[in-house]
Amino acid sequence: MPLPNDLKDKFIEIVEVNHVLTDPSLYGPYTDDFTDHYKSQPLVILRPNSTEQVSQIIKLCAENRLGVVVQGGNTNLTGSASTSTPDSEVLISLTRMKNLVSVDTKGDSMVVEAGMTLADVHKCAEDNGKFFPLSFAAEGNATIGGCLACNAGGVAVLRYGTTRELVLGIEVVLPDGRIWNGLRSLRKDNTGYDLKNLFMGSEGTLGVITKVVLKLFPIPKEKETSLVCVESPAKAVALLNRVKDSAGSLLTAFELISEKPISRVKKNLPDVEVPELSPSPWKVLLELSLFEKKEESVLESILEQAFEAEEITDAIIANSLKDSHKFWHVRESIPLADRTEGGSIHSDISLPIASIPEFLEVSLKRLKEEFPWIEDSIFGHLGDGNLHYNFVSPEDPTLTYRFEEEIRRNLYTTVIEYNGSISAEHGIGMLKKHHNDEFKDPIELELMKKIKNAIDPEGIMNPGKLI
Amino acid sequence: MPLPNDLKDKFIEIVEVNHVLTDPSLYGPYTDDFTDHYKSQPLVILRPNSTEQVSQIIKLCAENRLGVVVQGGNTNLTGSASTSTPDSEVLISLTRMKNLVSVDTKGDSMVVEAGMTLADVHKCAEDNGKFFPLSFAAEGNATIGGCLACNAGGVAVLRYGTTRELVLGIEVVLPDGRIWNGLRSLRKDNTGYDLKNLFMGSEGTLGVITKVVLKLFPIPKEKETSLVCVESPAKAVALLNRVKDSAGSLLTAFELISEKPISRVKKNLPDVEVPELSPSPWKVLLELSLFEKKEESVLESILEQAFEAEEITDAIIANSLKDSHKFWHVRESIPLADRTEGGSIHSDISLPIASIPEFLEVSLKRLKEEFPWIEDSIFGHLGDGNLHYNFVSPEDPTLTYRFEEEIRRNLYTTVIEYNGSISAEHGIGMLKKHHNDEFKDPIELELMKKIKNAIDPEGIMNPGKLI
């Protein structure tokens, strides 16, 4: 249906005419999904600039039983910020709500509006002599509200936790349009159910997060980054435990990377400088964050011991920040190198860390049996047990897409067998909803539905996603 | 009502006759509350030894619409492990469910039954070369299940977080007796609503936590402990920020202690050795945990800078583990010294850290105006914004008890004005239920009730507590 004129007028009254978009030729940035997988067809796109406006919009949607999709930077990878049925849902973009509300440098917290990009959150923290650790490739566009809605992970989870652990309070517009002000900046509060964590990670299905109280941290004084050669994932797990035992909370990143995607970076992205190291089937990229200036490298002595214990075969330590960026740039170039190779599909599974070596062996064998042509591209946050277990099919790029469903089923079956998760950080959205319905504990799904019905009985919040 | 015989027979069938207690003369350890405030009168006390037995008990209670109170070590401070109406509720003690299920030293996690004491959890971790950081005075009796139910805090929250942040997975018997197996040991899992955090901190009102997957950490190699003199809470906040900026995540404890309770320790507990320091109205007890052996003290240079900046007036650094225990023993002796003084009542408020100096001034003034005879005993985890704001009335110990309600209302009113919480770590239970109903955001209370009704529609789980 087209947007009825009376409703359009009411929306214009709330957010002004410039921010009620009904011309599909202007929809692009909001409807074209980051993964080229989903194309939204909203009834209307609204761009409110305050919690009060969001509240009024949701009230109107509730009265008219209109589905609501809320969007931040539109960088989601599972379709959770896209419409699920054409011409019937209201798409709300929060990108105009990007203000810094307040900073408390003595209490190490900061209040921001949900539409601020993660990169701007970093900047606001740094401008105040503080550090906000959440970090991932899309941070220039991704909004902090989106990070909360999907409980984003990234490269510093090992030390600082996922988004959940970085948030002190939230403000939420509920499915009936009322505003819950949970903007507390307390480190400890045991006065009721943990509503904050319930809304976080619920992918917009319970309400609209409009403001956030974030934890801030001291800026590390120094970083030590190293790229290391290991013969197997088992050796990488041994190294991980050695570094954790020796460096404790100084360890902030521990990434495992298969040589295969690195060789694709070399081949497809010749401008990316890949450090020279002895040949090895796996690499580890690890980083310590130090809070005092050191004369001697902490990492060097740990890596020497690892070498003597035959856990690693070669290693290079960054001599400068530039070097360190170079190491990370290799890691971050993998998705583009894979896409260039052809037929790239991605996943973000997690597993109990100790079971990863065996899981990799078993799962790869099963995948190769069913899809002999498949080529794997495995890398990820080993320190969190989270792998990006991706695939390419360079011979025929259409193959992986044609068999995507079967590939995912094959992979996820092994993941569940090893007590893992089919989504460590990207979430469920529309992409994995049917997989989640199939693989998740039915009692857990039932509890989720009970909560959904209790908080959003009309089911207007982000229909067709997650649940 | 007395327990009907047919029901008694059914309970005996589930847990065997020795573990169905109906003789009140045997009730003591389960019914006499830690705070001498509540005296339970259960219909029966059951002591199951497996999740399956708990499940069968809850099924039977659900069929008969019997209220269920679950108890760990019975060390709760708010009555949340006591019955709320006499002779009508089933009290379940989980203290027989105290087994270690499994340890994963490579993945840094451990599965234990809910009835294991926190002290035994520490021991199991240490026996496997690991560290579990949750720690507080009652850890010899408190069970890990109780810690989860109340989201216990303690002395290491600053670095490691509250119980919530130390748990990877849980197993729960739901109000209909079914078992939800959420015993995942994953560091990241974004496949649905955060049920784990919903059950944690719900004080037994949503289900019975029967098993737990705990995070383990490397054992710190060394600790540096110091007792420091400061002139005011504002100076203590400045010192906190200095240490955080200089030592980052090495800082594991930062306790503020008023001189008044320390002088009561000296007076009432002459066996406790109090280190000699220059006179000052406030002391700070702080601790760093180091992961490498150091030749030079990290703390010494930080404290020297703080002295030059006139943030501190004197300091003593522990020379040995024995010294360090001595410092902590002073801190831990305060509650007993206060009780000896007479009329001790306790609270566990939290506030945004930066507002604590002003809050203390304003709240003390208001309390002294209404209760000129009152004497304060303030100490607590300043690093988390959490204060134990306690009182004594040595002249007439009955005074504080008689005016307890008015004192709490006076204090909590100021707490709420400063955006604080009336319970940082002890929880609500029965003690603060009416205060919570009065002071908590009505929208938040309404959301909590919706969730309670969705998960426990008959309201059998821990009736009369929290909600």
TrEMBL record, chains A, B:
<feature type="domain" description="FAD-binding PCMH-type">
    <location>
        <begin position="38"/>
        <end position="219"/>
    </location>
</feature>
<dbReference type="InterPro" id="IPR016167">
    <property type="entry name" value="FAD-bd_PCMH_sub1"/>
</dbReference>
<dbReference type="InterPro" id="IPR006094">
    <property type="entry name" value="Oxid_FAD_bind_N"/>
</dbReference>
<keyword id="KW-0285">Flavoprotein</keyword>
<protein>
    <submittedName>
        <fullName>FAD-binding oxidoreductase</fullName>
    </submittedName>
</protein>
<comment type="similarity">
    <text>Belongs to the FAD-binding oxidoreductase/transferase type 4 family.</text>
</comment>
<dbReference type="Pfam" id="PF02913">
    <property type="entry name" value="FAD-oxidase_C"/>
</dbReference>
<dbReference type="InterPro" id="IPR016164">
    <property type="entry name" value="FAD-linked_Oxase-like_C"/>
</dbReference>
<dbReference type="Pfam" id="PF01565">
    <property type="entry name" value="FAD_binding_4"/>
</dbReference>
<dbReference type="GO" id="GO:0022904">
    <property type="term" value="P:respiratory electron transport chain"/>
</dbReference>
<dbReference type="GO" id="GO:0003824">
    <property type="term" value="F:catalytic activity"/>
</dbReference>
<dbReference type="InterPro" id="IPR036318">
    <property type="entry name" value="FAD-bd_PCMH-like_sf"/>
</dbReference>
<dbReference type="InterPro" id="IPR051264">
    <property type="entry name" value="FAD-oxidored/transferase_4"/>
</dbReference>
<keyword id="KW-0274">FAD</keyword>
<dbReference type="InterPro" id="IPR016166">
    <property type="entry name" value="FAD-bd_PCMH"/>
</dbReference>
<dbReference type="InterPro" id="IPR016169">
    <property type="entry name" value="FAD-bd_PCMH_sub2"/>
</dbReference>
<dbReference type="InterPro" id="IPR004113">
    <property type="entry name" value="FAD-bd_oxidored_4_C"/>
</dbReference>
<dbReference type="InterPro" id="IPR016171">
    <property type="entry name" value="Vanillyl_alc_oxidase_C-sub2"/>
</dbReference>
<dbReference type="GO" id="GO:0071949">
    <property type="term" value="F:FAD binding"/>
</dbReference>
